[in-house]
Amino acid sequence: MKSSTAYGGPQRKLVLAFDLGTTYSGISYSILDPGQVPKIKPVTRFPAQGHIAGVYKIPTIIYYDRKGTVRAVGAEAKDERVFEKAEEEHWVKAEWFILHLRSKTGNENQILDHIPPLPLNKTVTEVTADFLVYLLQCAASYIQDTNRDGSSLWASIRNEVHFVLSHPNGWEGRQQAEMRKAAVLAKLVPETPSGHSRISFVTEGEAKLHFLIYNGLPDSAIKHGDGVVIVDTGSGTIDVSSYSKIGSSREIYEEIAAPECYMQGSASVKMYAEAFLRSYLEGSSYGNAKDIQHIVECFDKLTTKPQFRDPSKTQYVKFGGLRDKDLGYNIRNGQLKLQGADVVTFFEPSINCIVEAVQEQRRKAHKPISHVILVGGFTANDWVFNKVHEALAPLQLNVMRPDNYVGKAVSDGAISFYLDHYVNTRVSKVTYGNFCHIPFDANDPEHIQRASNTFTSISGNRRIKNSFDVILAKNTQVSETQEFRRSYVREYEKIMDDFKTATFNVWCYRGVVEEPKWKDVDEGHYSKLCTIEVGDLSKLPLLPEYRAGVGGSPAVRYYRLSYDIVLLFGLTELKAFVAWKDQGEEKRSETKILYDIDPTDE
């Protein structure tokens, strides 16, 4: 896989993409040499996987000992000898841990309740950092082993690595901030502005688009400017994104519907199977927690789930030997017999989710959608693909499934995102704004209704609290360079040190009110996205103002500070600046964006 243009940088550089998935993770890289067209390569050899060719991923698993020390990671954690030692020494396994970073704004508590807990005294940031350390070690070893003069090559580019971290579509700035913190903790980059700038984020949906442009995005899917829905069916999540090509001469795409993320990936099939078996085997000699967990693992990893094809046929879960039997519960010769109709119910929630998600994208899209491309390991199952196809084909949707190394699609696509950057327009997922104080209007019924929320400002004006100022409405197409500006004023009775700093909150509204205006209407659907911290306002002009005195007393002087907050929502990560006028010329300064940490994540 090659990028389309030569690298124009002044010196050699390495780009590493980490696809940190729920159950499996992968790595791709590209060495950038000035004047050369970069090649995108996957890491295909990992510890404990021997010399198996074409292995693109390792299990996202870590074993910790009782002191919290990492003892086994990735494929090593699947070794039978590790299982034995882990049981003997009471090691703790961390898996599915990346889902602890998830956004908690959805209504999928049944799924979320089944996420394994984090190891005691470990935060999700610390566990993620430990896994990133391992991924970097794997990448370093592979690059040194497979390139000429590998050791000297790695030494020359180690401090010039740019990392691209992919994540589910549903993640926002808070999750990105935690991933960046984990990268710093893992010593991928230093805790400095320049270190932070060496990390980029991309959604899994957008990474898959970049991969498909080179590997299987047919011309018919993007003809006449029609849109295409990319459904990434992973283990933990189903990520749905929609794009359309702009023009015909260059590979430039626009997002045409807000991307969505659902917690109904293939791991949910395992969850539904476990719930069924707990009930079905209750009273059986195999109904204890340990045996059920083993049977579920065999269902998930061996033949039953991966090879499920025909619901009309009896299904078998091979989990033991010839002596394992309980005829009253359909267990014979180490096999559990299940009716195909029961197994279907494990798959149905995910299949229904895919179908409904595609229809929702079509309803919201800014352009017609004619094609659906299914990628990811879950829809590699023929029966799953056929059921989705049966549901969507009557809606005049052309459903297809490319067959090109899907195991490396996200990590390869993340590198292409960094090099080629084909998407320049994105769609807002929620309504963004902030709460502010506005002038009180005695003739406005809504203001009169909220008269108890009024106050008198330093300048002597009556104002009303908690009005929601919409900065960017939901489902709006936004270009990467498009700026959203809001003007703000701060008033002070006297010059004090506190005017040197200021904070500005960005809030999200996730409800159904078309034009949200007040905090007390559908209040439960507002959530704070972030706090923008303006580090030093002392350079801004602090202007004296006067308000009329009371009862004939002289005018009272106060100070007014005026500035603009400039926001860019069209990038894969929110950017913010503070702007002001200095003798008629606009000046700008970068800001610091802070995300609140959900205490339930720690």
From TrEMBL:
<dbReference type="InterPro" id="IPR043129">
    <property type="entry name" value="ATPase_NBD"/>
</dbReference>
<protein>
    <recommendedName>
        <fullName>Heat shock 70 kDa protein 12A</fullName>
    </recommendedName>
</protein>
